[in-house]
Design goal:
Structural class: alpha+beta
Strand content: 25-35%
Distance between the termini: 33 Å
Low-confidence stretches: 1-7
Largest sheet: 5 strands, mixed
């Protein structure tokens, strides 16, 4: 699986993801910090999906904030348990994972598109 940002992520995905990310980025940064401080994982992953998915816990309900994407909080070890990332793929994922204080790891999940994307948190 490719863990790098994909230049194909443009148009409809980039626009809607960015629009929703700006609204929820503070919540995601805080959740990322809690996941890491609570020793759940050093690798938080936030699933952006337009429908309910069994990947982590619902963090942001799109309907509540008039957004397009629901956000689920998860992390690397759960992705391995669920078979999304293979045991063999863990090292590659960890090598490409960006600083969690500066970048948010998104797993964008839609009917025709499934991809990891690292989005920088806005600077204060």
């Amino acid at each position: 699986m490719d863990y790098f940002n994909d230049p194909e992520l443009s148009g409809k995905y980039l626009g809607t993801i960015t629009k929703d990310f700006v609204v929820v980025c503070d919540t995601l940064l805080e959740a990322s910090s809690q996941i890491r401080k609570g020793d759940f994982s050093k690798y938080p992953i936030f699933v952006f999906a337009k429908q309910e998915v069994p990947l982590g816990g619902l963090l942001v309900n799109a309907d509540d904030l008039n957004l397009e994407w629901h956000v689920f909080a998860s992390y690397l070890e759960l992705f391995v348990q669920q078979g999304i990332i293979s045991e063999e793929g863990v090292e590659g994922f960890q090598a490409t994972y960006k600083d969690a204080d500066e970048f948010c790891c998104l797993f964008v999940l839609d009917k025709e598109f499934t991809k990891f994307v690292f989005v920088p948190y806005p600077e204060d």
